Amino acid sequence: MTEQTQTKSSPQDAMKKTMGYQFGSMLIMLVMLFIISNPSLRNVIGGGMNTVLLPAIGFNYSYPTLTLVISGIMIGLISSIPRYFFTDWIKMGKSQNRMRAFNQIMREAYRSNQRDKIQKLNKMRMDMTMEQQQVQMNTMKPLMVLSVFTLLIFTWMYVFIGNLTYKVIAFPWNHNVNIQTAHLWIMPYWIVIYALASLVVGYFITMVIKYVDFTYKIGKYDREAQQE
Predict the structure, then answer these.
(1) What is the enclosing helix (H) or strand (E) of 153?
(2) pTM recorded for the entire structure
């Protein structure tokens, strides 16, 4: 009786944790959007960060493109390293493989119109979806804390761009870009530069760490197997 109760309650507990995490993430995003969209708060926080970051990577407003790239690299490094070590890559791979196999079986059941099998598979889908959400939740946990640092950098960049004395910079595709007002489609140029630097560095760092980590683990397993 006790085992059955624990088995039934575990998906409910997992759902509560997932919903709690999603609510927390949404709340943090709303607070960040409120601060960024509020010029008074944004300028106060960004001004405080300016006293720290301007001497370090601001170059006295002389190289704004370099400053934006370095800011993106900082965010990419700070976000990718903790996220890698909080991710259970083996569990994630197993979960993805099971989901692919499940989707294939589900498609075959629909093609052959096996209604009983479809009902059973639909009951299994919730548990599998919950498992994937738990893996993703563990992966994103450090980002909830790191989002505070991201907010500080982002508000500082608003202040930094606003204080530029020489606003026109050159890109390979456009040699006359006003960094304060120019947009690439709907995004300001300076946000595009920052985002690209952050994404590229984050992806590269994750791949390097994964290669080194998995190479070490595979070599360790091989050595242990040889000793046995």
Answers:
(1) helix 115-162
(2) 0.75
Question: Angle, to 10 degrees, between the axis of helix 89-111 and the axis of helix 115-162?
Answer: 130
Q: At what angle do helices 64-86 and 189-227 cross, to 10 degrees?
A: 30
| Cβ burial, residue 39 (10 Å; 0-12/13-18/19+) | exposed
**Strand-pair category, 183-184 with 187-188:** antiparallel
Question: What is the three-class DSSP state of 74?
Answer: helix
Distance between CA atoms of 193 and 20, rounded to whole angstroms?
Answer: 34
pLDDT of 156 > 90? The answer is yes
Question: What is the residue type of 132?
Answer: Q
The predicted structure's pLDDT at residue 18: 66
DSSP one-letter code for 184: E
pLDDT digits (tens, 9 = 90+) for 160-201: 999 998 888 887 777 888 988 888 888 898 998 999 999 999
